[in-house]
Amino acid sequence: DAGITQSPRHKVTETGTPVTLRCHQTENHRYMYWYRQDPGHGLRLIHYSYGVKDTDKGEVSDGYSVSRSKTEDFLLTLESATSSQTSVYFCAISGTVGGPYEQYFGPGTRLTVT
Amino acid sequence: GQQLNQSPQSMFIQEGEDVSMNCTSSSIFNTWLWYKQDPGEGPVLLIALYKAGELTSNGRLTAQFGITRKDSFLNISASIPSDVGIYFCAGYNAGGTSYGKLTFGQGTILTVHP
């Protein structure tokens, strides 16, 4: 298994509160990604990082921000959580020589916004 | 943006039967990947395909990269109960703003009856 951990694994929070999810890798991979998974929508990319301090938006980035201050950690922040952000969030990493296409996923964080 | 159509959306089969699923796109991809997701866990990479026409096996799983580069197929032979899960296809195209991003299909939910 790729060395990816996510914390917390489960979280319940109230609308309007800030939330930060953490992804930690021990593989020294260059690329890191945050996805959300919802029924009927599959996996949708929120943000990704192609190096320390280098990030870019995915297809559903509104309401989310990210930071990557060191190779092993990629943080996803919901500045003011809304019920529509209730979802399962997955972190992924990649770094195969020659391309970032083989992504390996963490165990997920189930977030409920009440 | 790019979209992948994965079919069927769900399958109910008897143990021992073979399974086929496919993914089609309106765009060309350079790489096709197939993932499996068990309940409550993150997707796990099963097979990666890098060349049009390529046929690759992983145990009872066989995947093919379509000649047109717009489709891919996954077959599972002699299914067993632990094959239950959601199977995702993903395409990668290393060009322009798509660099580093996978496009995922909606998933095929596989149920295997003992």
Task: Write up what this structure looks like.
- The complex is a heterodimer of chains A (114) and B (114).
- Chain A has 114 residues and is an all-beta fold.
- Chain A contains no helices and 11 strands.
- Chain A is globular, with a radius of gyration of 13 Å.
- Chain B is an all-beta fold.
- In chain B, strands 2, 4, 5, 9, 10 and 11 form a 6-stranded mixed beta sheet that branches.
- Chain B is globular, with a radius of gyration of 14 Å.
- The model of chain B has no long low-confidence stretch (mean pLDDT 92).
- The interface between A and B is medium-sized, with 26 and 23 residues.
Topology summary:
The complex is a heterodimer of chains A (114) and B (114).
Chain A: E1 4-7, E2 10-13, E3 19-25, E4 31-38, E5 42-51, E6 54-57, E7 64-70, E8 73-78, E9 87-94, E10 104-105, E11 109-113
Chain B: E1 4-7, E2 10-14, E3 19-25, E4 31-37, E5 44-49, E6 55-58, E7 61-65, E8 71-76, E9 85-92, E10 102-104, E11 108-113
Parallel strand pairs in B: 2-11
Antiparallel strand pairs in B: 1-3, 3-8, 4-5, 4-9, 6-7, 7-8, 9-10, 9-11
What are its keywords?
heterodimer, A: 114 residues, seven-stranded mixed beta sheet, globular, B: 114 residues, mainly beta, six-stranded mixed beta sheet, five-stranded antiparallel beta sheet, 0% helix, 54% strand
